[in-house]
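Data deposition worksheet. Section B asks for the primary sequence of the deposited chain exactly as it was used as input, without tags or linkers unless they were present during the calculation. Section C holds the resulting structure in token form. Section D is free text for depositor observations; keep each observation to a single sentence. Incomplete worksheets are returned to the depositor.
Section A, Depositor: J.P.
Section B:
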Amino acid sequence: GWLNYQIEHHMFPDMTPLQYRKLQPLIRSVCKKHGVQYVQQNAIYRCWKMLRVAVGDDSMKCCKTIIDPTLHEKPLTRQSNEVTDAAIGS
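Section C:
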């Protein structure tokens, strides 16, 4: 369950599902402010869609990103659990 909170889960993996529910409006507003797509759909629909993709009857949509696609070419290095400025192109 909790498919409607995947964004929050990936940002804060140690939070409980109930905390994701409280955090969702803030994350949605930050995404809107910065022009980042935030998709929320009915959980039953998402399960059905996931099943159709899993059995090959449907495909996932490609999401255009606002992140420079060349960043994946640079190796990520971690210092104190943070990505260094060089890895994110700063």
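Section D:
The chain has three helices and two strands.
The radius of gyration is 16 Å.
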